[in-house]
Specification:
The chain has 711 residues and is mainly β.
């Protein structure tokens, strides 16, 4: 019992997990010895075991007495290895008997490989683990060996076993699916493809870190280009997380302007996990910085950084000349070197590699370089040299614009000034090429005047110009390496503004001001009066006014003019005002209101005509006649001639009676020309008004037919 327990503990220590006890017989790769083993089935030391082999060809069986051991070693010549065999083990202790299940095998191929070695290279991508495995030495045939893997995440206790695929290629790669991202602990085993072979023991644990899915976040600080032709680039990035394991960083500085040897073209630095910052010394050329992070799972994506080119005023060429599209540049080497590069890069195009010349040159040596430039383009011309001790540095640099670009000017005149406007040309966008603008102008027959403005200006004002004068103007771009000349080629004439025109404009201004103020005052007064009448109408004043003065014609039996006397609210608009003769009483008091009733006939004076004049009937013109005295029976007559000259003059013969009226809700009686009597009682006024309406209605019904009435 103790021996069986020791076997189980040994298996746990070797494989990391217990396996089911079984009976097996196998040999190692290239060995001629077979090892048979089985688990104990009885008390240790008191159990005897018998190993039996029965073969197909020849048909015989072999028995080997093992004793109390649980393992037995057979030599290659003791058994038949080229035929199928069936083997089993019998155990006896006391009266007990136990037989293991039969084991069928082909002994020549019953091979158990050694565990896979440690340190196999691998990489991981998208949850797949790919390993480079060795090829078994005893393998023969077209089928590859079989592989299995078991893995668990870091911190877990259970294993997950999967079958791996092996590619038949020169690299002997094996791919296993880990089922996700993260860090894993992986163990492998393998076996030959024959059915009698055995799985090897599990390999030692392989730590597979988390793959790098994102490139490091890179921050940088770029220094200025110095007089030595170099500048410092300071780089920094965040440290990698622990799940990614051991990470190495590779920095490469690639100069895009030169095509030289690999050792001189690229400066590479390999940094460890603990490094998170690094400085690079660069020249003034254009660079591409590459940062790559890698761990045991593989390499992550590359982080790229573009460093633009830079120039320094002290790093200049000796001379540059352009003739027919060919540029010739002279430069001096400040220090000795082994390699130098002449760069002629158009800024508007993709980076092009310059010509790299591997040639030793001493200090203070002068060199001549030639190149071809296209028209209407801005070029960066530079010379960079390399030495093993200092690396790359810039010897000379400048920008050059190939071609001529005309400037178009727009001129506009104002009061005693001319404004010149222009648009910046493509030459102005070329760094360091344009130094200033030179402006020249002159009137006809006068000397040319010059002025200068900086490269950022786009207009210029000419002051104190004369009206009606022809001016010649010009704007010229001045290069940094030349003095520049300006010729006034554009002609411009200012407008003629005479004194009369100026005086007339001034007079119009004063006239407009002088007319505007009175007009505004008149509009204000009219608006004020109209608003006062609308908002505050005047109160009526009947007392002492002429509204109650009546002419002789109006005091007759005719009806008053419309609007002269407004009826009271107590009288209907349909009722008529009827006068009453004194001394006569109305007998038809109960008649219906608004209906004319015949009244008592008054005595008419002698000589009065009954029929009224035509003008009276028409109610066209009523001549104002003074009121006769009350009780008078005389008539006012006119000769026939006057009647023809002025129609409407006629006479009335009618006794005058008091007329009761209601003006502004107050009873008023008109008496014998003495004015108003406001002391009359209300009852008398109402009675007189009723009798007057009846009498007046009868008279109007007689003398005003419906066909001639204008009421």
């Amino acid at each position: 019992m103790l021996g069986w327990l020791l076997v189980v503990l040994a298996a746990l220590a070797r494989n990391g997990t217990p396996t089911a006890p079984s009976f097996s017989c196998w040999k190692q790769c290239g060995s001629r010895w077979f090892l048979c083993s089985w688990p104990p089935h009885g008390p240790a030391g008191n159990t005897s075991y018998l190993l039996t082999f029965c073969y197909t060809m020849p048909r015989l069986c072999q028995r080997f007495k093992v004793g109390t051991r649980t393992t037995y070693t057979l030599k290659h010549h003791q058994v038949y290895v080229l035929t199928n065999a069936t083997a089993w083990v019998e155990a006896r202790w006391g009266d007990h008997f136990h037989r293991t299940p039969n084991l069928t095998l082909y002994l020549n191929n019953a091979v158990k490989l050694d565990p896979p070695p440690a340190g196999m290279p691998f990489n991981k991508s998208g949850g797949w683990l790919q390993l480079q495995v060795p090829w078994p030495p005893c393998h023969s045939g077209s089928q590859p060996p079989q592989w299995e893997a078991r893995f668990r995440r870091m911190g877990d206790r259970g294993w997950l076993q999967v079958t791996c695929k092996m590619a038949m290629a020169k690299d002997n790669s094996v791919t296993c699916a880990l089922g996700g991202h993260g860090a894993f602990e992986v163990q492998l085993r393998h076996k030959l493809p024959h059915w009698s072979s055995y799985w090897s023991n599990w390999s030692s644990s392989i730590f597979v870190p988390e793959e790098i899915l994102a490139s490091p976040v890179l921050s940088y600080q770029l220094g200025k280009l110095g007089r030595d032709g170099q500048r410092v680039l300071r780089l920094a990035w965040q440290p990698a997380p622990e799940e990614q394991g051991h990470v190495t960083y590779t920095l490469r500085a690639r100069m895009l302007a030169c095509r030289c040897t690999k050792s001189a073209e690229e400066d590479a630095a390999v940094l460890g996990t603990e490094v998170t910052a690094h400085n690079l010394t660069l020249s003034g050329a254009e660079y591409e910085i590459l940062l790559m992070a890698a761990n045991a799972a593989g390499m992550g994506p590359t982080q790229r950084l573009h460093v633009p080119a830079e120039q320094h005023a002290d790093l200049s060429f000796k001379d540059v000349s352009v003739a027919g599209g060919t540029v010739t540049a002279w430069w001096e080497a400040p220090s000795p070197g082994l390699v130098y590069c002449f760069e002629q890069q158009p800024l508007s195009e993709a980076p092009k590699r310059g010509v790299c010349i591997q040639q030793d040159f001493p200090a203070k040596s002068i060199h001549t370089e030639r190149g071809t430039l296209e028209a209407s383009a801005c070029y960066r011309l530079a010379v960079h040299g390399w030495t093993p001790a200092w690396g790359w540095s810039t010897f000379a640099t400048r920008h050059h614009y190939a071609g001529n670009v005309p400037i178009h000017i727009n001129a506009s005149a104002r009061d005693a000034t001319i404004v010149l406007q222009w648009s910046s040309s493509a030459r102005a966008a070329c760094p360091g090429v344009l130094a200033k603008y030179l402006i020249c102008h002159a009137a006809e027959g006068e000397n040319v005047t010059y002025a200068e403005v900086d490269t950022t200006a786009s207009h210029y004002t000419l002051r104190n110009v004369r009206s009606g004068t022809v001016y010649r103007v010009g704007v010229q771009e001045v290069m940094a390496e030349t003095q520049g000349t300006c010729s006034p080629r554009w002609h411009f004439q200012t407008k003629a503004l005479g004194p009369q025109g100026a005086a007339w404009n001034s007079n119009l201004k004063y006239l407009g001001i002088s007319l505007c103020l009175p007009a505004m005052a008149a509009i204000y007064q009219l608006s004020k009066k109209r608003a006062r009448r609308l908002l505050l109408p005047p109160l009526p004043k009947p007392m002492g006014s002429k509204a109650i003065q009546f002419s002789a014609a109006e005091m007759s039996q005719g009806q008053p003019r419309p609007g002269f006397v407004e009826p009271s609210e107590k009288f209907s608009p349909a009722e008529l005002l009827i006068t009453e003769h004194p001394g006569k009483e109305m007998t038809d008091v109960g008649t219906r209101p608004g209906t004319p009733q015949p009244g008592p006939t008054a005595e008419e004076p002698v000589g009065c005509e009954k029929e009224l004049p035509f003008a009276y009937r028409r109610q066209d013109v009523l001549s104002p006649v003074a009121f006769p005295l009350p009780g008078s029976t005389s008539c006012t007559s006119h000769p026939p001639g006057e009647e023809e000259e002025e129609e409407g003059r006629w006479g009335l013969c009618q006794p005058l009676v008091p007329i009761p009226l209601l003006i502004f809700d107050k009873p008023v009686i008109i008496r014998d020309g003495k004015g108003l009597d406001p002391s009359l009682e209300k009852s008398d006024v109402e009675g007189n008004a009723s009798r007057s309406r009846v009498a007046w209605g009868q008279d109007l019904a007689t003398h005003f037919p419906a066909s001639t009435s204008h009421w």
